[in-house]
Amino acid sequence: MTKLSVNINKIATLRNARGGNRPNVVQAAKDCERFGAQGITVHPRPDERHIRYQDVHDLKEVVTTEFNIEGNPTPEFLKLVKEVKPHQVTLVPDAPDAITSNAGWDTIRFKEYLTDVIADLRESGIRTSIFVDPVEEMIEGAALVKTDRVELYTESYATGYHSNRETAIAPYVKAALLAKQLGLGLNAGHDLDLDNLRYLKDNLAGLDEVSIGHALVCDALYLGLENTIQQYLHQLK
Ligand code: PXP
């Protein structure tokens, strides 16, 4: 089974556009779960332009499915996640001013750094996943730093999907097989949508989880949140 974790950052972006508390991020997380999502993902950034650190604390009180916190492991981020203790932390090498995550880790270059951070999080009882491009060398490096899982960065799959989906998926199939051979759990995310999700799911053996935000929230504007989540779940069946 592949779990759907809904990234609710865009809900917070909408709230922050006006001040006040509409839409209510905590209620949205509860509703996503009620509508069938098997996880909630947030990506607090240092400038708190969407999810705020306080949201993360508030969400911890209500999320009953899997709580996944993504981010660059700055000292502030590590302090936050060790206080909150989510089920999973996904480490992402994004610059503070990046609009969205735009690259996976270089697991060779950052081997020592990642090893230390991952060991630290494991000591706090938190499962780790690291965001990586579908490159075999990077997957091998991920196993060496002893992460529990990798999250394959699916931007290039999503971009190539409509012109040639066989070519677009090929590096992901290899990366997924290798990750499983090395005993790593397998997540995927970024730019996944109702068009490209099923083909990804059908081609990646042992896909544990996808985290989806932008397209899902956009679809919800037209289809409603409940119906949208049901449709994403249907693609993962
Ligand atoms: N995975 C990671 C590491 C991300 O940074 C994001 C975006 O915050 C996602 C998944 C979800 O991407 P999208 O919003 O395109 O669905």
Overview of the structural elements:
The protein is of the alpha/beta class. It has one domain (3-236): TIM Barrel, CATH 3.20.20.70. Helices cover 48% and strands 16% of the residues. It has 11 helices and 8 strands. It has helices at 9-18, 25-34, 53-62, 75-84, 111-123, 136-144, 155-161, 165-181, 197-203, 214-223, 225-235, and strands spanning 3-7, 39-42, 66-71, 88-91, 127-132, 149-153, 185-189, 209-212. The protein has an 8-stranded parallel beta barrel, surrounded by 6 helices. Strand 4, helix 5 (111-123) and strand 5 form a beta-alpha-beta unit. The longest helix is centred in the last third of the chain and has 17 residues, at 165-181. The chain is globular and about 45 Å long. Bound molecules: pyridoxine-5'-phosphate. Residues 7, 9, 43, 70, 90, 92, 100-101, 131, 151, 189-192, 211-215 line the site of pyridoxine-5'-phosphate (PXP).
Keywords:
237 residues, alpha/beta, TIM Barrel, 16% strand, binds pyridoxine-5'-phosphate
Topology:
Layout: E1 3-7, H1 9-18, H2 25-34, E2 39-42, H3 53-62, E3 66-71, H4 75-84, E4 88-91, H5 111-123, E5 127-132, H6 136-144, E6 149-153, H7 155-161, H8 165-181, E7 185-189, H9 197-203, E8 209-212, H10 214-223, H11 225-235
Helix pairs in contact: 2-3, 6-8, 7-8, 10-11
